[in-house]
Amino acid sequence: MLKTAIVAARDRQRLQEIAGILIGFGVNKVVDRLGLRAIPRLAWRSAPAVDLARLSQPERLRRAIEALGPTFIKLGQVLASRADLLAPQWTEELGKLHDKVAPLPWDVIRPQLEADLGAPPSAIFSEFDTDPIASASIAQVYRARLESGEEVIVKVRRPGLQKIIEADLRLLSHASRIVESEWPEMARYRPTEQMRHIANGLREELDLANEGRNCEMLAALFADRDDIVFPKVYWEYTSERVLVQEFIHGIPPTDVRRLEDAGLDRKVLAQRGVDAFLQMALIEGVFHADPHPGNLLAMSGNRIAFIDFGIVGRLSQRRRSQLLVLIGAMLQEDADGLMAVLLDWSGASNPDLTRLEAASQAFVTRHNGATLNLGLVLTDFMTMARENDLAMPTDLAILFKGLVTADGVMRQLDPAFDLFAAAGPTVRRHMRAQFSLKDLKGRFQGLATGLYGAASELPTLIHLMLVRLKQGRVTVEIELKGMDKLTRGIERAAARVAVGLVVAAFATQLAPRLMEHGTPAFATIGILVLTIGIGWILLLARNR
């Protein structure tokens, strides 16, 4: 629609690029629904030459997302974990999205890095390798050594990235509103809210200083444990576009031979890794949201190191309690408890309770008694939500993605690893703590304090009400949805009745009297008034 082009006028060039790529990859349904074909002077040169006949619709979308850049890659990665929103053929294909891109040349990176450091790298680091050890859509990572001898990594945001991402976020925000209005069947999934969550996360990831703060915040949660390691942040060199952190010497969990050569116990590593993740998510309410194999390292002494904190998830106390109940219901094969949590998350949707109850019981039966594969369980759980027209809350979708990723890593460390069994003691311990006498006493004290505050105001409120009653000044305000339409309807009906009465009175009483006088003028006026009255009634009836 043309409105899209008008709203996005400030980002016309980027919109043309996006449209050209989508059209080039044959993502026609999205193009047509968003009205992108109506945009004048489309940049057809952006359209890649692709043999569409050889690509399925999910493949076309995935290839288009990769061509569109970091904002869309992040969106695609989020959607890949949303089995509650998309069918398996779409999530499986989007799961192939990668965030590795060709590195920018050092000559492009160097001027920005010098400006942020306030000096050439050679003046700050005794060693600096200009060949990046990692390159992603947001930043490139270099290895260096400080003058004091510490080995560090230097993470540098790609130049000119923020302007593109902000334009993309504006356009996607507008697109999400179009989706809600044009596709009513998608409104229950709250695309505007989902997009807002993604935008907030991406903006946080762009700020490398925020990543440093996330690292220190999580490290503080494990200050009393020496088996969980976080890198030190060098704040004197860190800013929005540069992050300097301790270089962690460790072994990726996928490198089984190196782990065995180092004499590390893979079962212990898996248990400690999941303990740390569950403590973050279920107890502290803040967790590493992307614990893939590249962000976890095994260290000597069976220690686990977490790195890369661009994406951090957060859970409220209420959400953590719900999650504990959900895991408890799964462990205890409690279909009713599972259904209760789903209904609590359903928000404004109105699911078929009989169908949902049957689905919950079938889910419990499918996963009864076997060693649970968390990835399959959570994917099945989200599929059940989708089939019952329920959408997961965004914060929980991020957690589920993290849990599935963590489960995959732990299974690489220990193929027999069962995250549910490993989580059992943690869940039971914290459920006992949550409902212990001490905890219940604290809750009752809080409730009593609130009730006391309300009760202390009650005499004043009662006295004021009695005074108002004596004065006859009690006012009751009732707001009904659609009352304005009802009011207009009543007004129209009253108008029709009034006009009808006037016309009827004229026709039955006044008109005969005028005719008796034999005055042609009066007769003409009477007929005219009668005609106008009848016409008015018909017009009002038509405009109901």
Descriptive report:
The chain has 544 residues and is of the alpha+beta class. It has 5 domains: 1-98, no CATH class; 100-247, no CATH class; 253-435, no CATH class; 441-474; 484-542. The chain contains 23 helices and 10 strands. Strands 1, 2, 3, 4 and 6 form a 5-stranded antiparallel sheet that branches. A 3-stranded mixed sheet has the order 5-9-8, covered by helices on one side. A two-stranded antiparallel ribbon has the order 7-10. The chain is globular and about 110 Å long. The relative contact order is 0.06. Residues 41-45 and 446-454 have low confidence and may be disordered. This is ABC transporter. The chain crosses the membrane at residues 493-515, 521-541. Pfam families: ABC1 (PF03109). Keywords: Membrane, Transmembrane, Transmembrane helix.
Cα distance spanning the termini: 31 Å
- Work out the number of β strands: 10
Unreliable runs, pLDDT <50, ≥5 residues? 41-45, 446-454
The outline comes out as globular
Count of helix runs: 23
Sheet with most strands: 5 strands, antiparallel
Strand content: 5-15%
Number of domains: 5
Helix content: 55-70%
Derived from helix and strand composition plus strand pairing, the structural class reads alpha+beta
* Averaged pLDDT: 77
Rg over C-alpha atoms, rounded to the nearest angstrom? 33 Å
